[in-house]
Amino acid sequence: xxxxxxxxxxxxxxxxxxxxxxxxxxxxxxxxxxxxxxxxxxxxxxxxxxxxxxxxxxxxxxxxxxxxxxxxxxxxxxxxxxxxxxxxxxxxxxxxxxxxxxxxxxxxxxxxxxxxxxxxxxxxxxxxxxx
Length: 131
Prior knowledge:
- This protein is 40% helix and 0% strand.
- By secondary structure, it is mostly helical.
């Protein structure tokens, strides 16, 4: 099972080590957000945005462009406290994700139950595809 707390600790440690004195790095940004296109949002911010607006997204969760840019900019400007704020966004993102997962129905069917899935750590072998 995926360990969200270990993942959070790793992400927070990463962003804590990033420079805050370089304004052209996201962790050093000291201004207001004014994204004019969804494709300009960096992945590190997009992860937060998707989790923050989870209930506003279509069922597939892929079309984040359905979130109005003014809502994204407003949210980020409200939460951003200047350089070093990526750790804050990461913590909020993991809190939101944990809350969402805790509220998810527990009676969902595991479609992969009973299937052996090879991983890097396992010794399972995959049959070669036959032509």
